[in-house]
Amino acid sequence: MNSVLQDLIKLLDLEALEDNLFRGASRDIGGKSVFGGQVIGQALVAAGRTVTDCAPHSLHAYFLRPGDMEAPIVYEVDRVRDGRSFTTRRVQAIQHGHPILSMIASFQKPEDGLEHQLPMPPVPMPEALPSLESLQEGWLQREAERRGGMPERLRAAFMRGLPIQFKPVVPWNPFEPDVRAPAQQIWFRAADALPDDPMLHRCVLAYASDFNLLATAMLPHGRSWFSPDMVVASIDHALWFHRELRVDDWLLYSMDAPSAQSARGLSRGSIYDRHGRLVASVAQESLMRRINGPKPGG
Question: Structurally, what CATH architecture does the domain formed by 3-109+162-290 represent?
Answer without folding.
Answer: Beta Barrel (2.40)
